[in-house]
Amino acid sequence: MKGLSLRKAGAAGLTLLAAVLAAAGCGKDEGTGKEGGGKPVVLNEVAHSIFYAPMYVAIEEGYFEDAGIELTLVTGFGADKTMTAVLTGEADIGFMGCESTVYTYAGGTEDYVVNFAQLTQRAGNFLVSREPVEDFSWKMLVGKNVLGGRAGGMPEMVFEYILAKNGIDPATEVNIDQSIDFGSTAAAFSGGQGDFTVEFEPHATALEQKGEGYVVASLGEDSGYVPYTSFSAKKSYLEKNKDIVQAFTDALQKGMDYVQSHTPEEIAKVIAPQFPETDMETLTTIVERYHKQDTWKENLIFEEESFTLLQNILEDSGTLKERAPYEKLVTREFAEKAAK
Q1: Which of 169, 194, 223 is the last residue of a domain?
Q2: Do residue 175 and residue 100 come from a single domain?
Q3: Which of these three, 223, 258, 284, is where a domain ends?
Q4: Which terminus of the chain, N or C, has fewer Cβ atoms within 10 Å?
Q5: Do 164 and 139 meet the contact criterion of CB atoms below 8 Å apart?
Q6: Strand order in the sheet with 113-120
């Protein structure tokens, strides 16, 4: 590859906040502090998922190299870990659910984290049933056992948002199990737990291929356009490294342009080195599923309307007590230049 050297939800938000605030005081100085041919950037991603295809296209097609960026990609395996890496200076840029930036801002962090590029505009998970379902309705979940996501995280909050949109009280009418670690729900479902499970790819497709589950709904389609994941960095880093951030954003925009103008088969072929454990047929199926539901934005601009919707979801979940200002936590400067 190239270029790659407070209901229950509220408690989770506070846990994340406590972790990142504790870490904020022990980091290194802003900037990369490295030497090399290109401008070094450490990017910490919340997970390594086909859901983030445009970023991997930018890596594999050499767009970061072309922009003079020497990129190091690290997988954080959780928004709390990714945010901690950004706040401590272990990472220059974080890629995660933007709700994490709201949590840290609400905690009074002086050098708070600002979103500068939005990648996905749909939820990336799917509802999987144990049995085939014809004419699925969300009302079918009433009284059922569902393997959900971490309380306070975007996957779970979007799931509860969809239930509420369909007149279902997530707290009283659906039995949502939030005790299983991210990435382990598919195995638990295979083992007999739950009537339904909420799964990211490739787990949803893997369950179908094994005949152990059936995708009956897309949370991305049923929730509407939601600012699911974005790139962010500390305010001080953005101020001191404008050229680097612009070059980084320009490379990302090329990745976005690619997925908008190429077929799922072509996209899958480009990002295949990032997912050596996934065969090409499965990879193409997953890319096609995300492509079909309009997962990726045409540009990276994080609109105010999207930020308002995000905070509506946080409020509905019981996580958010006071809204954060859009002009503080989002900058359009880099994305708008990249889109021109």
Answers
A1: 223
A2: no
A3: 223
A4: C
A5: no
A6: 69-75, 39-45, 93-96, 229-234, 113-120
pLDDT(114) > 50? yes
Sign (positive or negative) of CA dihedral 23, 28, 29, 35: negative
Query: What pLDDT is stored for residue 37 in this prediction?
Result: 64
The answer to whether residue 281 scores a pLDDT higher than 90 is yes
Is 90 exceeded by the pLDDT of residue 111? yes
How many domains, the chain? 2
Is residue 295's pLDDT more than 50? yes
Pairwise CA distance, residues 54 & 260, whole Å: 9
- Indicate the helix (H) or strand (E) that contains 63: helix 63-66
Show the tokens assigned to 220: 């991305």
Q: State pLDDT tens for residues 231-240.
A: 999 999 999 9
In terms of Cα–Cα distance, which of 226, 237, 247 is closest to 302?
Answer: 226
Nearest to 335 by CA among 260, 235, 229, 230: 230
Nearest one of 332, 329, 338 to 97, comparing CA atoms: 329
Q: Is the pLDDT of residue 24 over 60?
A: no
Residues in the chain: 340
Tell me what percent of the residues of the chain surpass a pLDDT of 90. Answer: 76
Sign of CA dihedral 79, 233, 116, 53: negative
| Residue 110 included in any domain | yes
- How does DSSP classify residue 272? G
Task: Quote the pTM value.
Answer: 0.84
Q: Are residues 214 and 249 in the same domain?
A: no
Nearest Cα neighbor of 49 from 24, 72, 71, 75 is: 75
